[in-house]
Amino acid sequence: RKRLPPSPWGLPLIGHVHHLSALPHQSLQNLSRKLGGIMYLRLGMTPVIVISSPDLAKEALRSNDSSFGFRPYLLVGEYLTYNFKGIGLSNGDHWKNMRKICITELFSVKRLESFRGLRLAEVSHLVSRLAQASKSQSVVNVRELLTDFNVNIVSQMLMSKRFFENKNLGGEEVEEVRQLREFLEELTRFALKFHISEFVPAWLRWIDWNIPHARKLVAKQEKFFEKIIQEHKSSQKSRPVMDFMDILLQHQEDEEAAKATFMELLAAGTDTSACTTEWALLELLNNPEIMRKAQEELDTVVGRDRMVTESDLHKLLYLEDIVKETFRFHPPGPLLPRMSTQACVLGESFDIPKGATTIINFYAIGRDPRVWDKPEKFWPERFQGSTIDVKGQDFELIPFGSGRRSCPGMLLGLKSVYLTLANLIHGFNWEPVARGGSYNMDEAFMSVIWPKLALQAKVTSM
Ligand code: HEM
User: For 432-435, which contacts have Cβ atoms below 8 Å and span 24 or more sequence positions?
Assistant: First the structure.
């Protein structure tokens, strides 16, 4: 006989909402410790299945990939992506088409290779900012450094624009960049608010009191993209190689699809990589022995006379273990959001209703003592001699998801994390400015899971 997975105690109307805190991945981890690897929650009127076991994640994402290949409804998807015209929140044929364009024209190995010089130029810029900070003995705001790096990479790939730390920008453009930063922050705050439309049936969504705010945000977004699209159309002939905006405007007559996809790629592709590097550096600062081993490896493989480049990365095996361990312990987006499009059975006999929001909590999987030895310890050596990788085949470690909706930007994200981390620790010694020399590792659930306190430290050139 089939049955629903176990649930915690609920309340009339709100169901199980009261079990969730400002750190929902941790609340769900705590619940799964009591209820097991699969549970059933009701958030308002929305049925939600939460999976926190590698075997059940594999069953959902591999054996039943087509049943769980949809994204659930989000208010930001309806408004800021013009009724689901982007890639990350859309479904069905439109999603298939956008994903195909993104994979062939932006994320293919060949296309990524053509941007190698761009990444090198940005990393040189990052290193010279650190060298300046070393000279002036000033404290480095690591988060700002990493965010600038990642936004600059993605914005140049998408639309040939370098937004941050660009001395060639005129006063009006600097003001635009400031507005973009503010807009992205406001959008994140908005996306994290409670939206009742996500917890009621579709016909009742109009009652959401956040809709006027969503419309205001759309107007700000419009202002930003209209200008970029116009500039792009008028300068297209002067670009030797077409950028992604040129390509997308060619494929898609509908400019709204281009705007939606751009906003999603900027949102999905910048903070994810930046926060992974920030967590890794934090762990190294709190664990000087691991830092020492990583720097020794860099000295042996790269030497002291030059920067680390992408051709060095495959030889840096300890660095690879550090990055894997960072993804296990601090996955940037720890809850995979999916939706079941047909009823199915998971596990021994758990009934998954059609239309249930399905969340895979791989934060819980990464810290489960049944899956990992000493899970609360940051211990890169656990990967020595192990074949476990982050690429979506090993369900103990799926920071980029798995299956048809897995992250298409994975290769770019990995390059960015390796390159920035390697260069941050290669040419510089880091001195903590935290009280007592050890950093607080609390988390904040924002666009991604950031360290609650942005990492600040002093550097000296080696
Ligand atoms: C460390 C870096 C990154 C991490 C950890 C990460 C993680 C993820 C995760 C967990 C998902 C959901 C996967 C699923 O449902 O199975 C995802 C989706 C996505 N990511 Fe990434 N990501 C990273 C970098 C990037 C970059 C650099 C880009 C693009 C510039 C990007 C673009 C996307 C897009 C467009 C989707 C939605 C795909 C779809 O729904 O078909 N990501 N990412």
Answer: 432/285, 432/457, 433/139, 433/457, 433/458, 434/285
Question: ipTM, 2 decimals?
Answer: 0.99
Mean pLDDT computed over 276-289: 97
Between the CA of 44 and the centroid of ligand 1 the distance, in Å, is: 28
Both tokens of residue 111?
């296309």
User: If pLDDT is split at 50, 70 and 90, which confidence band does 91 have?
Assistant: very high
Helix (H, G, I), strand (E, B) or coil at 15: strand
| 270 CA distance to ligand 1 middle (Å) | 10
- d(CA 118, CA 324) in angstroms, rounded, equals 25
Cα(280)–Cα(62) distance, integer angstroms: 29
The kind and range of the H/E element at 218 are helix 211-235
Tokens 């200008």: give the residue. Answer: 227
Helices 317-329, 410-426: axis angle to 10 degrees equals 120
Which helix (H) or strand (E) segment is 460 a member of?
Answer: strand 456-461
Report which of 167, 221, 225 is spatially closest to residue 190, judged by C-alpha positions. 221
Region 116-133 average pLDDT? 95
Contact residues for 100 (Cβ-Cβ < 8 A; gap 6+): none
Q: Distance (Å, rounded) from C-alpha 163 to C-alpha 364?
A: 36
308-341 pLDDT, tens digit each:
999 999 999 999 999 999 999 999 999 999 999 9
Give the integer Cα–Cα distance in Å for 143 and 253.
37
The CA distances from residue 335 to 63, 114, 306, in Å, are 20, 32, 39
- pTM comes to 0.96
Task: Please give all residues whose beta carbon lies within 6 A of any atom in ligand 1, as ranges.
Answer: 87-88, 99, 154, 264-265, 268-269, 272-273, 276, 332-333, 336, 399-402, 405-409, 412-413, 417
